[in-house]
Amino acid sequence: MDGAAAARPEAAAWVVDRPGPVGTTGAGPLVLERRARPVPGPGEILVEVEACGVCRTDLHLAEGDLPPRLPRCTPGHEVVGRVTALGPGAAGFAVGDRAGVAWLAGVCGRCRYCLGGRENLCPASTYTGWDRHGGYARTVTADARFAYRLPGGPPAEELAPLLCAGIIGYRALERAELPAGGLLGIYGFGASAHLTAQIALARGARLAVFTRGEAARDLARELGAGFAGDSYDPPPEPLDAAILFAPAGELVPVALAALDRGGTLAVAGIHLTDVPVLDYRRHLFQERTLRSVTANTRADGRAFLAEAARARPVVRVNRYPLERADTALADLAADRVTGVAVLVP
User: Where does the Enoyl reductase (ER) domain lie (predicted)?
Assistant: First the structure.
C-alpha cells in the first residue's frame, strides 16, 4: 500500500480470495477485509453504498465458473448509493445525487458494435464486480457515463435488483419476441425472473412458470402466473416464447419442445451447464429459434428503468447485512432465496 492509500480511511469490503464452492459461513471463497477507501479517477464518481443486490453472476465469479479478471475482486453490480465525490471531468452527477452502478462498466466506444448500437457486444467491454471492484463494500467508484440516475424516494434495497436482474430480464424479454397477449414461459424463478414476469404481465402477456422450488411456484402464482409447475412439466398449451433463467443446460431442449411453431427461447444467463444434443425436428423445426442474451446496453438500462417506474414491480427482498455477504451467496447457491437477496451496509 502506498503512502497516499495508507493515509486514507479504511472500510470493509469482500473479495474473492480463492474461487471455489460456496459453503457455510467462513468456509467459502469470499474473505472480508479492510481496504483504503477509493478515490474517483478522471470521469468517475465515488458512491457510498446504500444497498447492493446479490446476483447469480456473483456466485459464478466466486465459484470460478467465470475466470477471474481482477485479482481479489470485490463482487457486486447492483449498487444503489449516494454520490460523495466527483473525479476530474465527471459529468451528469452532483454530490448528494442518488446513483446506480450496474454490470456494464465500460466499452471502447469505437468498434463496430459500439458504433452500431450494440455496445453489449464490444470486445473491450468491462464489468463491475469482475473487471473492477463492485458493491460488496462500503464505497465503490464508477465511470459516470455508465451509472444511472435514480429517484430518491424508493427504498435502496428495492431499487438495487433492478440494476441487473431487472435490466437483463428486460433484454431477455425483448430477445424472446413475445407477441402481444402471448403465453410466455419462464424457466427458473429467481431474482431476474420474478421482475421480468411482472413486466410481461403489465404488457398484457399470459405467464407460465416452470421451477423446482415450491416457494418460487407460490410466488409466481401470487404475482399473477396462470400456471406454475415443475421445471420438466409440460405447459398448459404451447408457449409463444420462453426465457431460460436457470443456469441448467438440460432445460434448453425441454423449453424448446414446449414452444409453439415460430416461438423463441432466450437464454438469459452468463453461464450455462452443457446443453444436451438437440433433435432438429422436435426442438428447432417449424422455425423455432434459440437465442442467447449477452449483457445489456445503456439504452436497455434506461428503457427498463423507465418501464419499471410505470409498472412498479413488486420486489421480494431478502435483506442481509454487508457482514453476511458470504451467507447470502451460500443461501443463493442452495436455493434458499425466494425473490432477491440484497446486502444493506
Answer: 26-343
pLDDT in tens, 86-131: 999 999 999 999 999 999 999 999 999 999 999 999 999 999 999 9
Kindly give the interhelix angle for 191-202 and 214-223, rounded to the nearest 10 degrees.
20
Amino acid sitting at position 193: A
User: Does residue 28 surpass a pLDDT of 80?
Assistant: yes
**Check: CATH 3.10.20.10 for 167-292?**
no
Which string of b and e fits 118-136 if b means at least 16 CB within 10 Å?
ebbebeebbbbbbebbbbb
* 299 pLDDT above the threshold of 90: yes
Q: What is the pLDDT of residue 7?
A: 56
- Residues 275 and 252: beta-carbon distance below 8 Å: yes
Q: C-alpha cell of 7? A: 493515509
3-163+315-344 has which CATH code? 3.90.180.10
Biggest distance spanned by C-alpha atoms of the chain: 66
